[in-house]
Design brief:
heterodimer; A: six-stranded parallel sheet; 14 strands; B: alpha/beta; 8 helices
């Protein structure tokens, strides 16, 4: 074999090898990579995505990122190496998770985001996202109507998640126009019930004279309510949440929590599972971002709702 | 053997080019859009959008003379034919234009009837604090998928509402009187068909008063 033939064999071999980089091995596996399973709302999201994909004929594994982008990266590396066919993805961080979705895309694995957004329009195939801003515009208007005047505290979610600020911005787009309502503290409790409890206990020491608490999700609303109950203030302070989680729906019925905003995790999970199935069947024209409507749930209309959705 | 030499050279070049590209080709409009988004100023974007896109699109608004009877007789057909939606859900929007007579004026709205003899208002022009996404979504001129970060998309709504509050409403509120003829263009958000269709609640984009009729 002369050197030109050797070059030829080498080039063809390398090109074939490089081409293989974009081909995932044929399996029937779909991955559900979820930001956390330490919150019942995300358990519903992940489990529904799993059930819907299984119903479409796939073998599904759920990966818990524990709100840690590094752990999420490990999951993506494993999923790519194992040749999964699609990822149904609930990201941990709007910016920090883009690279993970891009890696999967490069490996030929389609990614469909559920509930949480990544700040990119070309890494995921599609993103099914609650319209958090609109939900909190409605919640803000109800807050103004029911609280009327006084001091309030805001508990924010994870600062790397766009949902946190879309909710906060929607709320403030309304409430900030009413000078009789004054925010005396705003602090992140990372969407976590235990952190919300601890932070609320501490904030109540500094700001005993409050009339309301706006929480960026229901887990924090339950934590805040628990702190208020321990301080004997639960009858005087109105608590507002966001999600439509089971314990908050029950608490609205029992008139402990004033209102929440119902998201539809089952719908988003179903859309992502079906999107992935259609993609694998050859469809390519997907709308990149699909807002999913949310609905205000109050003590007046609570009968229409149940945990994580509307009654049939 | 000469052809093998040439083929191998071409393949080698292709391989080197593939692994170590000297340049990347991107669409110019994609680069411009990316740069715009990186330097995104929601206030400037909204002002520019209002002037150069929204006001140029008002011919696309459906006439109230067409829409109102259809909503009354066949609301589903009206929705199918003339509404705009964004995403998945029950909320929808109308991009609307028309002319009517001022029937009543209160703190938050000016009620308008299409015929002077009508007793109930056909449209309430909202003149109080403006919230939500009616103009952004109702006018159907912006696509959420063009915005990498939904916070940018939402800040546009906040700024469009400010333009309505600061520029559209003050001259109208200062001059409007009962019986005036009003030409309006705007958007209506239909959250609840039981309360939002009769009358339609219009967030105005343009308002023009004709006096002395």
């Amino acid at each position: 074999m002369n050197r030109y033939t050797l070059f030829l064999v080498l080039a063809i071999g390398l090109l074939t090898f490089a081409g293989c980089g974009n081909q995932a091995p044929e399996t029937n596996q779909v991955a559900v990579i979820v930001s956390t399973l330490n919150n019942p709302w995300f358990v519903v999201l992940a489990e529904t995505a799993k059930e819907e994909s299984e119903a479409l004929g796939y073998d599904v594994t759920i990966f818990d990122s524990m709100n840690d982008t590094a752990k999420e990266t490990e999951h993506f590396e494993n999923v790519i190496a194992a040749g999964y066919r699609a990822v149904l993805f609930n990201p941990t961080d709007a910016d920090g998770s883009i690279g993970n979705a891009q890696k999967a895309k490069k490996a030929g694995i389609p990614v469909f985001c559920m509930d949480r957004e990544i700040n990119s329009t070309n890494a995921a195939v599609a993103q099914y996202l609650s319209d958090n801003y609109s939900g909190c515009v409605a919640l803000g208007q109800y807050f103004v109507k029911t609280v009327k005047k006084g001091n309030y505290i805001e508990l924010l979610g994870l600062v790397g998640d766009n949902n946190t600020f879309n909710r906060s911005n929607g709320f403030h787009s309304v409430v900030d126009q009413y000078p009789d309502l004054k925010m005396v503290a705003q602090q992140s409790a990372d969407f976590d019930r235990t952190k919300a409890l601890e932070i609320m206990e501490s904030l109540l020491q500094a700001h005993p004279d409050i009339q309301a608490v706006f929480c960026g999700n229901d887990a924090m609303a339950m934590g805040a309510y628990q702190a208020l109950a321990s301080a004997g203030k639960d009858k005087d302070v109105k608590v507002f949440g966001f999600d439509g989680a089971g314990d908050v729906i029950n608490s609205i019925m029992e008139k402990k929590i004033v209102a929440t905003v119902m998201q539809f995790p089952k719908l988003m999970a179903k859309m992502a599972a079906e999107g992935a199935h259609k993609y694998l069947g050859g469809k390519r024209d997907f709308q990149q971002k699909v807002p999913v409507i949310v609905e205000l749930v109050t003590q007046e209309n609570i009968k229409k709702y149940e945990a994580y959705g509307k009654k049939e | 053997m000469v052809y093998i030499r040439w083929i191998s050279a071409v393949l080698l070049l292709a391989f080197v080019g593939y692994m170590f590209p000297l340049f990347h080709i991107h669409k110019l409009d994609e680069i411009e859009r990316k740069q715009k988004m990186e330097q995104f100023d929601p206030e400037e974007f909204s002002k520019d959008f209002w002037k150069n896109q929204l006001l140029q699109s008002i011919d696309q608004a459906v006439s109230i003379q067409t829409l109102a009877p259809l909503i009354k007789n066949d609301p589903d057909q009206a929705k199918e034919q003339y509404s705009n939606t964004i995403g998945i859900g029950s909320v929808y929007y109308y991009y609307l234009k028309g002319t009517g007579y001022v029937k009543s004026i209160d703190e938050d709205a000016v009620a308008v009837v299409l015929q002077q003899e009508n007793l109930n208002p056909d449209v309430r022009i909202m003149t109080g604090k403006i919230f939500g996404n009616a103009i952004r979504n109702g006018s159907n001129q912006l696509n959420v998928s063009d915005f990498p970060n939904s916070q940018q998309f939402n800040r546009i709504s906040m700024n469009l509402n400010k333009i309505v509050e600061n520029e559209v409403l003050p001259p109208f509120k200062d001059n409007v009187s009962l019986g005036d003829r009003v030409h309006f263009v705007g958007c209506c958000e239909i959250l609840d068909e039981d309360t939002d269709l009769h009358p339609l609640k219009l967030i105005p984009i343009t308002l023009k008063i004709e006096k002395g009729l």
